[in-house]
Amino acid sequence: FLTEGISATLSWEVIGVATVSIEPGIGEVENSGTHDISPTETTTYTLTAGNVEGSATRTVTIVVEPVKIIQPGPADGKDTWVDSSKKNKNYGSNEHLFIGRFHGDVERALLQFDVNDIPVNSVIVSADLQLYQYNTWGSLDSFSIGAHRITSSWQLDTVTWNTKTTFNSSPVNTIEVFPSAGTWLSWDIVNLLQKWVNKSVNNYGVLLKKTNEGSGGTDISCWTSRYTYNLDLRPKLEISYYVP
After folding, report:
1. Are 51 and 73 in the same domain?
2. pTM given for the model
């Protein structure tokens, strides 16, 4: 299996033949050698070796895993944040979100992506939830942020700290974030996405929270799907998968 955009190398060695060719797209070759390939779709390569007595063939199929990027805009995006100091305030229309702890206020982000067009029997090879960190605030300490599976439904225009969105206490992935600006953050949620696609758990999205919310004074700010200045900086889910 090969992820789209990645190259592979074909290698071969035949003896006692006059001609050797590989198709598609390579043509006549020496009796032994290598050749780099970068197919954009699943491709079967056929080696044909011949002499005066006839010819023989061998084939190899390179399965290319599609790379799918889900990066919604304002019409279909579902991402926001909640704030412990403003327990009843909804931020569903904001173009930014915050994660961390600042001046004693705890901030968490919620994101949900529609993955229904991925076939149910797909095998998920990789799945990275990505946010663009455009700034850091507070004491500028590094801290860790965990991605947690949300276990109850929530609405973008009504969710607040006090609506008590439930989530799994064990993160599916945790990363370290640093006091910087202009960088992409990425959480590996491959196992969670596989469960969403297989329908073994409901897809209510992911909650991002500081691992230790009881200490520290730093938070980060990221763009949401409502950011209009640079559409490429909106939250995205980058996936590679194949259908067996």
Report:
1. no
2. 0.81
Tally the domains of the chain: 2
pLDDT value of position 40:
82
C-alpha 228/C-alpha 75 separation (Å) is 12
Buried/exposed 78-88: b ≥16 CB within 10 Å, e otherwise: bbbbbbeeeee
Residues spanned by the domain of 7: 2-65
Report the distance separating Cα 158 and Cα 114, nearest Å: 19
143 shares a domain with 57: no
Residue 48: CB atoms within 10 A of its CB come to 17
The answer to whether residues 59 and 109 belong to one domain is no
Q: Do the beta carbons of residue 36 and residue 9 sit within 8 Å?
A: yes
pLDDT for 5 equals 66
CA angle 146, 151, 157 (to 5 degrees): 90
